[in-house]
Structures are given as C-alpha cells and as structure tokens.
Write a structure and sequence with these properties.
Layout: E1 9-13, H1 18-29, E2 33-38, H2 41-50, E3 59-63, H3 69-83, E4 88-91, H4 106-131, E5 137-144, H5 155-174, E6 180-187, H6 193-202, H7 208-219, H8 229-240, E7 251-254
Parallel strand pairs: 1-2, 1-4, 2-3, 4-5, 5-6, 6-7
Length: about 260
C-alpha cells in the first residue's frame, strides 16, 4: 500500500540511532523528505552516511539539544526553508533513567521531567505554524508502556512518561482545529543501544542473545524477545500517513505483549 508520504517533510528528533534512525530510514524508503537532529555531531554524521546516497537530497541533519528552545526553533525553521514546509513531527529524543525512589535525587527528577516535556513541547511549538499549513499534518510522540504500568526501577521515567501520555491526549484535542493529529507509540523492550550498554555493564558472562531472552522472560514479554527498532518505525510511519487521517488522540503499544493495561 502506498502510504502517501512521498515528498512530504517530516521532522524526527533523536535520529542518530535506535528508533529515531529506523524511523528516518523508513520515511526515506517511503519517499519522504526528512529533517533529523541529535546532540552528537559525529554520531549524526555516521548515521546519515549509513542511510545511503539515495536519500541525501531528501535528508537534512542538524546538531540540536531538544531542551534548547532556540536551537530547536532554528533547526525546524531550517527544515521548513529547505523543503518548503513541514507535514509531520516525530518527538523521539529521550532516554530512560534506571533508578528507584531511594536512588533518585531532586536533580534526577528535574532533569527527567525537563527532558521529556521539552522534548515534546519545544519541537511542537517550533513546528506548529508549519504543520497548520499542511493538508495532512501528524505528530507522533514516542513514549513507553511505562506510561500506563509504572516500573519501580524506573520511577522518574515512569512518572514523566505518564505525564507525556496525558499531554499527548490534551494536544490531540487542542490542535484538532488546526488539522494536526497527535498520537503516541508506546514501546516495550526494544533492542537499541541502551540494552547493549546495559548488557556490557552487567558483565554476566552470558551472550547478548541469551541475556535478551532472560530479560524478556523476567519482564513478561509474551513474544519472548526484545523488539526491533524497525518494528517501531513501521507503526510510527503508519500514524504519520495521510491514510491514518481519522486517527488522533490514541496510542499504539509496540511491546511484544508486555503491556497489561486495557486502557
């Protein structure tokens, strides 16, 4: 099926690795024009080089921290100037903080809430005027199933994720009059760089494959494995598509069955 994304411009934050990079690749494969940013210039350049020559004329990259509203505004405006507008936004930048209540400082809470909320609000505020001019504007906020079923080992992240899910619902109603759809994709355990780093730090002596299987079993993942970044990207791209023009204010779990909430 043609998703109708050819020649549409999508901004993706945190596109240098993991789900962000997989989303950039999937969008380019659909013929879209993509502007993506990251904090590390070297990683961003390496990621862009790995996307191949075919997408070079449809790809814009920029070094940007989503917590810096002015930098985000400059990047988004550059994307609109380069490609003639913006049709979609994927708010992907972020990370998980593996800490419980007793380990979490006041600074941890401030940093986590700032990153999660700035990571949605700064790009959205910058892109909103351009999205409002699009005939098929869509925003996808990358979230986690933690938003609906908190994890004690990730207490600050769980709380922030819940707030972002609530915010996304509010935004879907607020922006509907402008023709801007807002949806969420909630992740479970996805095989990205953070899990390889945690495996290395654990130094268990087991292979990464065996460690993944044990982790999936421990977390109750019905499919018995970690997800792949491209499996998330497919859901994101579908929600951005004009084919999903009557879908807003909802969330899709991409989590292998670990999600136990019915809401």
């Amino acid at each position: 099926m043609d998703l109708g994304l050819a020649d549409r411009t999508i901004v993706v934050t945190g596109g240098s690795s993991g789900v962000g990079l997989a989303t950039v690749r999937a969008l380019l494969d659909e013929g879209a024009r993509v502007a993506t940013c990251g904090r590390d210039a070297d990683r961003l350049a390496e990621a862009a080089a790995g996307l191949g020559v075919a997408g070079r004329d449809r790809l814009l990259t920029g070094v940007c921290d989503v917590r810096d509203a002015d930098a985000v505004d400059r990047f988004v405006r550059a994307a609109a100037d380069t490609f003639g507008g913006i049709d979609g936004l994927v708010n992907n930048a972020g990370q998980s903080r593996m800490k419980g209540l007793d380990d979490s400082t006041a600074e941890d809470w401030r940093d986590e809430l700032e990153l999660k909320f700035a990571g949605v609000l700064n790009p959205l505020r910058a892109a909103r005027p351009f999205l409002a001019r699009s005939a098929a504007a869509g925003v996808v906020n990358i979230n986690a199933v933690l938003a609906k079923q908190p994890e004690p080992r990730l207490i600050t992240t769980s709380a922030a994720r819940a707030g972002i899910l609530n915010l996304s619902k509010s935004l879907s109603a607020e922006l509907a009059a402008d023709g801007i759809r807002v949806n969420s994709v909630c992740l479970g355990l996805i095989d990205t760089g953070q899990w390889t780093r945690r495996h290395a730090a654990a130094a268990t002596g087991t292979s990464y494959e065996d460690w993944q299987a044990e982790l999936a079993a421990d977390r109750g993942v019905a499919l018995g494995r970690l997800g792949r970044a491209e499996e998330v990207a497919y859901a994101v791209v579908t929600l951005l598509s004009p084919r999903a023009s009557y879908i807003t204010g909802t969330s899709i779990d991409v989590c292998g069955g670990v999600g136990r909430s019915i809401l």
